[in-house]
Amino acid sequence: MLDCFKCINMKKTGIFAAGVLFGTAGVKLLASKDAKKVYTNCTAAVLRAKECVMKTATTIQENAEDIYEEAKEINAKRASEEEEDVFEEVEEVASETCTDDETNREL
């Protein structure tokens, strides 16, 4: 009759029993009022952190939009200045060409 107990590994059985005990105690602990209070406070903290992060993200986005608009204005100004420079160079070349033509006519 005691031969059937020899087949049972007491170490594995003990580990199983401990797991069941901790599992049952864990469920009771997780469902307690104190645990719910902790969950509520943690969730409130996460929501506050989310609000802070969203506020910072909005500020960064607004600043990035301002920077982008200023950069576009700078590039537009630079492009118009380059067009003016090209126009002035064309006028100089044209006036030099006219002067050279007049000199050649006199000869």
What string gives the helices and strands in order? Answer: HHH
Point out poorly predicted stretches. none
Radius of gyration: 42 Å
Span of the ends, CA to CA: 138 Å
Largest sheet: none
> Whole-number average pLDDT?
82
Q: Please bin the fraction of helical residues.
A: over 70%
Number of beta-strand segments: 0
Approximately what portion of the residues adopt beta-strand conformation? under 5%
Shape descriptor = elongated
Structural class: mainly alpha
> Number of helical runs?
3
Structure, briefly:
This protein is mainly α and 107 residues long. The protein has helices at 3-6, 10-30, 33-106.
Structure description:
With 107 residues, this protein is mostly helical. The protein is 93% helix and 0% strand. The longest helix has 74 residues, at 33-106.
Main attributes of the structure:
mainly alpha; 0% strand; 107 residues; elongated
What are the SSEs and their pairings?
Elements: H1 3-6, H2 10-30, H3 33-106
